[in-house]
């Protein structure tokens, strides 16, 4: 099963501490040995650095330039990974968030975990 983890928090211009990045790298290596496959991950630039929203509302498409002052939190990073079960995805995500608690005191946020559907999933859903 593939999952996307979206890390949300208050927007800040600070980079995560290098110790946190190193700890996440170690967690990813540990996960690889246990069958956790990291497909892609990355951080997102602040909304003031080219953030744009394209919204469809009442039949009209609107483009809104960042920064987004009305947002209490924004997606600041993401990861796409493959694990056998949702339970394992939750376990690795909890460990990821625990690293934030440990290495970035005062940071508050959440990680939203969502299963990714690919073309084969849509074909199965459309089958009679």
From TrEMBL:
> Which stretches make up the YCII-related domain?
1-95
State the family it belongs to.
Belongs to the YciI family.
- The name under which this protein is listed is YciI family protein
Pfam assignment, any one: YCII
Q: Which InterPro entries match?
A: Dimeric_a/b-barrel, YCII
Q: What is the species of this protein?
A: Pendulispora brunnea
